[in-house]
Design goal:
Helix content: 10-25%
Distance between the termini: 35 Å
Domain dTDP-4-dehydro-6-deoxy-alpha-D-glucopyranose 2,3-dehydratase: 6-206, 245-447
Protein name: Oxidase EvaA
Strand content: 25-35%
Shape: globular
Radius of gyration: 22 Å
Pfam families: Hexose_dehydrat
Largest sheet: 7 strands, mixed
GO molecular function: lyase activity
Structural class: alpha+beta
Length: 468
């Protein structure tokens, strides 16, 4: 446990200095253990496990584009993302891991106690076993605070879900090298630091019950009024713009109104994309590319491996507009359709896009409220951090996560497909699968954990790592 965050940073830097990591780009047709199928162009692992890169056809009546084809990652197996919680002197602490992923900016980021695909924790790679796995696979190890199958990035994954779990334990838990206990307040400060708390941690932390936060809130130190109103002891009793039953009715209507049809395609049959031994990419320079990397990481279950990985072309923006309605902050959520999700609609942030994709011929499709976010006065920006997306499948994928407060004159009746929702309502829905998308859950974690006015300390520069 760390009494001060400076102690955490010392621990983090020592961990980086003690280990070496290397990520090197390589050709897709030279990935050890992988093959480009000659008849389809799909990229698959020799074991038939882990994941594959294939093509997908999409047709929908929800959005500016009615039909398209694209590459997509197909990972049908569900992994485990789990965080252990234990109270020390009455204060909950979260067991976090300094984990290397090949796509991470800063190489090593704070991950959940367990972050493993089924192939990994079943040791298909023939490497070391996953520490602490038994707490999440054996019943009776602790009190279940959250356990739900959650979707991941629907633009890049096909039907991808992971089991998000938070388990509170009371017995002794040995702290292995590379792991540490952090309080909610410490995690809140670290969530304000760019590219430190990874996506898998953020999606799991979004499931932490608001009631647990209210019961253990510290009274010392400055508290942000907006964030405190979201997680305070009266958060679940304050009036709402739309009652929960009406909110669910609206959400169900959105799902019933729109159509989303998907069909698998050979990667070689995807139109509008270029495939070479070096990469799969869109000629416009928009969207993303698929490349290959060779990885060396002495702290992982396997010391070296190769894999394909997706590279976004631009940094994205993920933002909630927030407005005080009836004395309570409300978030502006969107009913959003993405190519790879399990269902037609998931609740998304107000804005979720890569602005650089909406130039030239695509400028007419510029998302609603994007200019309200990007043009907000600095005093209105209540949270602003850049966070990496899942580093095991995406290379240097990052989004700017924002909470932007609007004034009382902002429209009470939002545009079509949008609704005002409280953080407590969003948190309730996030305890069930296929309701709240991963980007909204990431911002929800920031809302639940960052009620202090203290800004995060910049992350020390990585040591002993290379990427090229």
């Amino acid at each position: 446990m760390f009494q001060r965050l400076s102690e955490f940073y010392d621990w983090y830097v020592e961990h980086l200095a003690a280990h070496s990591y290397e990520v090197t780009r390589t050709r897709l047709d030279r990935l050890a253990g992988w093959a480009v199928e000659p008849d389809t162009g799909n990229i698959r692992h020799d074991s038939g496990k882990f994941f594959s890169v294939q093509g997908l056809g999409v047709r929908t009546d929800h959005g500016p584009v009615e039909q398209w084809t694209q590459p997509i990652i197909d990972q049908p197996e569900s992994g485990i993302l789990g965080i252990l919680v234990k109270r020390f002197h009455g204060t909950p602490h979260f067991l976090m891991q300094a984990k290397m992923e090949p796509g991470n900016i800063n190489i090593v980021q704070l991950s959940p106690t367990v972050q493993a695909t089924r192939s990994n924790y079943r040791r298909v790679h023939r490497g070391r076993s996953t520490p602490y796995l038994e707490y999440f696979t054996e019943r009776g190890r602790g009190r279940v605070l959250s356990d739900v199958l959650q979707s991941e990035q629907g633009s890049w994954f096909l039907h991808k879900r992971n089991r998000n779990m938070i388990i509170e334990v009371t017995g002794d838990v040995p702290v292995l090298p590379g792991f540490c206990w952090l309080t909610r307040e410490q995690l809140g400060e670290l969530l304000r630091v760019d590219n430190l708390v990874n996506m898998d941690s953020r999606t799991v932390l979004a499931g932490y019950p608001i009631t647990e936060i209210a019961d253990t809130r510290r009274d010392d130190g400055p508290v942000d009024e907006l964030f405190a109103a979201i997680t305070g002891p009266t958060a679940e009793r304050a009036p709402t713009r739309r009652e929960s039953a009406a909110l669910l009715s609206w959400f169900t209507e959105m799902k019933a109104r729109y159509e989303l049809v998907r069909w698998p395609l050979p990667l070689s049959a995807v139109t509008g994309w270029t495939s070479t031994p070096e990469e799969i990419s869109h000629p416009s320079g928009r969207f993303f590319a698929v490349i290959g990397v060779d990885v060396k990481a002495e702290t992982r279950e396997v010391g070296s491996w190769s894999q394909p990985i997706l590279v976004p072309r631009h940094r994205g923006v993920v933002a909630f507009l927030v407005k005080w309605i009836g004395g309570r902050p409300h978030l502006l959520a969107r009913a959003h359709t993405q190519a790879g999700t399990q269902d037609v609609i998931e609740l998304a942030p107000t804005v979720q896009c890569s602005p650089d994709n909406y130039t030239g011929s695509l400028a007419e499709h510029r998302p609603a409220y994007l200019d309200d976010v990007l043009g907000a006065e600095p005093s209105r920006v209540r949270f602003d951090s850049v966070h990496s997306e899942e580093g095991g499948r995406f290379y240097h994928a990052e989004n700017r996560y924002l909470i932007v407060e609007v004034d009382g004159d902002f429209a009470d009746e939002p545009a079509a497909d949008f609704t005002w929702i409280t953080a407590a309502q969003l948190a309730d829905l996030a305890r069930f699968g296929n309701y709240v998308n991963v980007e909204a859950r990431n911002l929800l974690a920031c809302l639940l954990f960052t009620d202090r006015t203290v800004a995060g300390t910049p992350l020390p520069a990585p040591v002993g790592t290379t990427a090229h």
